[in-house]
Predict the structure of ABC transporter ATP-binding protein.
Amino acid sequence: MSQPILDARNVVKRYGRFQALSGVDLRVMRNTIHSVIGPNGAGKTTLFHTLTGTVPLTAGSISFNGKEVGGMADHERVQLGMARSFQVTSLFPTLTVRENLRVAAQGIQPRKALHFWSKSLLHDAHAELIESILARLELTHCIDRVSSQLSHGQQRRLEVGMALAAKPQIIFLDEPTSGMGIDDIDAMKAIIQGLRADLTVVLIEHNMGIVMDISDTITVMQLGRVLVEGTPEQVKSDDRVRQAYLGNMITGGG
Ligand SMILES: Nc1ncnc2c1ncn2[C@@H]1O[C@H](COP(=O)(O)OP(=O)(O)OP(=O)(O)O)[C@@H](O)[C@H]1O
């Protein structure tokens, strides 16, 4: 059997006295779409934060391509090939689409953008990479538009592009379709499916239709633990999953 590209074991995350993750295991296989679902507050975003290094682990280990990354800073993980598309926008609103992607391709954090601005914006580094990302995202025609003028759906696609500009092997997408209309959702779905050929996708998504359609594997979380893991068919027919969602509806969650 092949080795997982990402192998997280017994991940624990505490915020003060509150334990948001209570020993989560997650094994993600290469070139798959692996979705993480669960009722509100289950710990999905917290798990993403620990995997990508946005927050430190309390305990556990995270191995990426066989290398322990659990203690590494987020930018170090990006350099190793782990990229993340944030729910909160990561775009530079006054820069064009091309310029946004250039900033991302250079691996520049927002606070260092001014340095970059002074020397690198003038030459056309990364042009090929940027063109290929834009083609993939169907944003080629927007290349010289200022990102704040893009539609919501286009902005969400460009956010994925920002993560792709780091040339990742694995990409973490946190609710990439949130706030989208049906046409934009279909476009995003096709883009995510297309990514699987070249990289591995880990996805948090509340739209169950999308999750069931495009996932190879689904991990269902509840109260900071893994409740069930399997194929869409297995997850759909699992009573524990039904109960978890039913319980959530009864308590008023989404
Ligand atoms: N910085 C924090 N400090 C304290 N508690 C937190 C913090 N971040 C998250 N939590 C708590 O951890 C639990 C898991 O939250 P998390 O956002 O990971 O859930 P989720 O599954 O992503 O939920 P949703 O689907 O609503 O986004 C929640 O009870 C939340 O209140």
User: Anything to note?
Assistant: The CA atoms of residues 137 and 157 lie 6 Å apart. The first strand starts at residue 6 and ends at 15.
